[in-house]
């Protein structure tokens, strides 16, 4: 069986590091922690799990810190997490099974990264990442901010999921790093332009974000998933600025980079529903329910747009045009995902009342024929 080094970078993670390490301590062979300047009790907590704690002077470069952490690993494969990540019990079992049968010809193993959940436990945002890599290949991290691990070779897509469970974070940190780089006159790569625009959106700086998304798309060198995501982010920016025309144009712009995605079908459905074009809204919402979901999605993925949301909106649409049975059917599908959602339950009561009334009217008409 292959051996595993867990290699992490941390700073002031006293609230989350214990939870993270306790979820993986018995499924890895060594734990490497690189501290970039903690001033809290992070190191003291980490010592419960490992004595391999290394200091690294923070230089506003995540890739540099992660590459140093990777250089400290000694086992066959390197596994990486952030301090606010955990493996849930089901995924711990899957991880152990994976390691038990892993062929050493595999260069990298990808895992889903669950970023957000709704109140019913449904995943609302996920992405796939290279998580377990062969140490001998000396794969490198690239990028000072929003760094990525450059890998090649035999890639295995696993069914293991890492769950992100953030308790706190420095919301201005990444923006400050980008702004310092701009002041130094650095040229941004297409990837930098995209992620800088994302930071600007997070800080509600919508006009600037639009500028940098347009710059990113104008390079023609972006990853297709980032191109498509930029169109959605642009639509969000224009929505916040009250520009419906450009919001619609940004959604349609996504079709330049690939076939329709459920997210954009829902965006278009909502646009036409707002404008009382119910049949067109129905077309786009129905398409959202029919699109195949990718199990190996590399871009950010929101399952909401292909599960309960379009069905709930179809319920609204069909109710508007008096197709109450269809409205009820779609509401029931939405209820299968969100069984206690107040809106769904209210729709259920309302539609059952309407359908009951129509059944009585029909029965009365039949008796008088």
Describe what this molecule looks like in 3D.
- It contains 14 helices and ten strands.
- The strands form two sheets. Strands 3-2-1-4-7-6-10-5 form an eight-stranded mixed beta sheet. It has a two-stranded antiparallel ribbon with strand order 8-9.
- The longest helix is centred in the last third of the chain and has 26 residues, at 342-367.
- With 369 residues, the chain is of the alpha/beta class.
- It has three domains: 4-164, Spore Coat Polysaccharide Biosynthesis Protein SpsA, Chain A (Alpha-Beta Complex), CATH 3.90.550.10; 170-258, Alpha Horseshoe (Serine Threonine Protein Phosphatase 5, Tetratricopeptide repeat); 266-369, Serine Threonine Protein Phosphatase 5, Tetratricopeptide repeat (Alpha Horseshoe), CATH 1.25.40.10.
Summarize this structure as a short list of keywords or feature phrases.
two-stranded antiparallel sheet, 3 domains, globular, Serine Threonine Protein Phosphatase 5, Tetratricopeptide repeat, alpha/beta, single chain, Spore Coat Polysaccharide Biosynthesis Protein SpsA, Chain A
Topology:
Blueprint: E1 4-10, H1 17-22, E2 30-35, H2 42-46, E3 53-55, H3 62-72, E4 77-79, E5 85-86, H4 89-100, E6 108-117, E7 123-134, E8 140-142, E9 148-150, E10 155-164, H5 173-183, H6 190-202, H7 206-219, H8 224-240, H9 244-253, H10 262-274, H11 278-290, H12 308-320, H13 324-337, H14 342-367
Parallel strand pairs: 1-2, 1-4, 2-3, 6-10
Antiparallel strand pairs: 4-7, 5-10, 6-7, 8-9
Helix pairs in contact: 6-7, 6-8, 7-8, 8-9, 9-10, 10-11, 10-12, 11-12, 12-13, 13-14
Domain Glycosyltransferase 2-like: 5-124
Keywords: Transferase
GO molecular function: transferase activity
């Amino acid at each position: 069986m292959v051996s595993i080094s867990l290699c992490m970078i941390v700073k002031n993670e006293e609230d989350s590091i214990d939870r993270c390490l306790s979820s993986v301590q018995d499924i890895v062979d060594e734990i490497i922690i690189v501290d970039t300047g903690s001033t809290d009790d992070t190191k003291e907590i980490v010592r419960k799990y490992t004595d391999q704690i290394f200091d690294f002077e923070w230089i506003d470069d995540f890739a540099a810190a992660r590459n140093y952490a990777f250089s400290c690993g000694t086992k066959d494969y390197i596994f990486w997490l952030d301090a606010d990540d955990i493996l849930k019990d089901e995924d711990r079992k899957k991880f152990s099974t994976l390691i038990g049968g892993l062929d050493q010809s595999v260069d990298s193993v990808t895992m889903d990264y669950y970023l957000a959940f709704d109140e019913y436990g449904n995943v609302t945002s996920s992405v796939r990442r290279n998580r377990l890599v062969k140490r001998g290949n000396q794969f490198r991290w690239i990028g000072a901010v929003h760094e990525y691990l450059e890998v090649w070779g035999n890639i295995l897509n696993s069914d293991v999921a890492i769950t992100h469970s953030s308790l706190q974070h420095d919301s201005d940190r990444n923006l400050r790093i980008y702004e310092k780089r701009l002041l130094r006159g650095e040229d941004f790569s297409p990837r930098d332009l995209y992620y800088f625009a994302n930071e600007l959106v997070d800080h509600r700086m919508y006009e600037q974000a639009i500028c940098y998304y347009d710059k990113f798309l104008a390079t023609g060198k972006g990853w297709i998933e980032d191109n498509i995501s930029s169109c959605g982010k642009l639509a969000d920016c224009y929505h916040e600025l009250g520009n419906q025309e450009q919001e619609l144009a940004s959604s349609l712009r996504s079709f330049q980079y690939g076939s329709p995605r459920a997210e954009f079908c829902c965006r278009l459905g909502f646009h036409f529903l707002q404008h009382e074009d119910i049949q067109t809204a129905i077309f786009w919402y129905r398409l959202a329910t029919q699109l195949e979901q990718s199990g190996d999605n590399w871009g950010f993925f929101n399952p909401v747009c292909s599960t309960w949301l379009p069905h709930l909106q179809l319920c609204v649409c069909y109710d508007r045009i008096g197709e109450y049975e269809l409205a009820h059917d779609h509401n029931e599908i939405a209820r299968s995902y969100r069984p206690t959602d107040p809106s769904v339950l209210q729709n259920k009561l309302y539609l059952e009342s309407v359908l009951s009334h129509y059944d009585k009217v029909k029965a009365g008409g039949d008796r008088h024929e």
